[in-house]
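Running this now, will post back.
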Amino acid sequence: MPSLYQPWCRVDPYDARIRNLVKARKSPRWHPPLPWRCADESQLIRRYAFYWFTCRDRTKPSGRSWARQLGISHTWLQKLVREFVANPTEEFEVLRNTRRSEIRRTQPRPRGQR
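Update: finished.
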């Protein structure tokens, strides 16, 4: 895309941005971004984070190590904990409803009871 600025002006921001992206991709530390998580995976991570938050065991791992085991950043775990503190009953309701639906899904019923 040609620059919208006159040649005598400073460097076009678009051109500078493209140059920086090319420079970053040449770096040995560059890696492609991770794929987005599906809703089920996010819900599962949320459930494990709530389990960690409500755990009162002596061997409870630190937030950073728990986040590392889940494959998420510790800042996301902290964000989830802040949500749990702000509205704990909502998470209990979600867990209770999820467990009921999982139980229904895993226990097949005879055709007469459907």
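Residues 39-113 form one domain. More later if anyone needs it.
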